[in-house]
Amino acid sequence: MRKADILFYISLGITPIGITLRINDYIIGNALFGYGLLGIIIYFTASIIRSIKKKNFNKADLFIKSLIIIVAPIILSKYLYYGFGDYLGIIIIPIFVITTLINFISKLKRNIKITLTSIVFCILIVPLFDIDFKNDPRNFIPLNWYHIHNTNRLHPIDLFYRFNSQEAKSLADKALKARNKKEYYHSIYLLKQAKSIDTDNPTLYFGLSEIYVFINELELAKNELDTAINLDDKNPIFYNNRGILYNRLSENGNAVIDFRKAIEIDSTQYFYYCNLASVFIETMEYDEACKLIDKAVALGANLDEYESLKRLREKYK
Prior knowledge:
Shape: elongated
Strand content: under 5%
Largest sheet: none
Distance between the termini: 78 Å
Radius of gyration: 24 Å
Structural class: mainly alpha
Number of helices: 14
Order of helices and strands: HHHHHHHHHHHHHH
């Protein structure tokens, strides 16, 4: 077997392994996924150059190889939450999928490497169409393009998790100052640096989630809270804030689950009840909403801060 073939099969193999590790919060998963896609790009680029030099190539194969080279970084951008592939992906991904289907249907003799790569890429493309799972990729049409919401119901909180590194704490402090100056992208950069040093500190993931909300990257905000909850599943504010994000992303079923979990952990905070009541108003479950509003008021809620809850309570009082 040629060295180039070995590179191809190793690269193709570590790509799904990287995704699996990534879903389970192993940082090495991102690296394996990236290296796998890079190896595939290198292999098909070299293959195209070699074929052109020898003047011995099939135009259809050359076209799909070129598509693979273009689609690979787009897939990488979607899974690692970079925006550079969003606009190009709108055009290239449908072309790639249609070309792959035509290639499968029309050809009797297929290039095995093109076929295997196309199958893996198509599997990776499927979750882009709003399939929700842990560390899921950016959508084919990113939700921040059309979900422009006020997220004032998100509740900031001082978290008292111990930093394992003074350097990480210093970076987090700088990130907070940058956020307060509305230098959001610089703050994200600093928190990512801190996260690479202190990987198990929920404070950093929670902080990133808050900043992603400010720039309307609600998917990314939710994913950071997924990790925070994985690190500490007893903090009710994590569930509350993720519930709000689910609500903003039109996933009210998941929002209800998270708000109920927040209440289960800490039943003394009125805003958990208010947030859950707001979801029930959207789903027109008014009796349930009224019970939650009464509970919130008993805990000290000021309904002047929640106009929809106030109107409902006055109507059914």
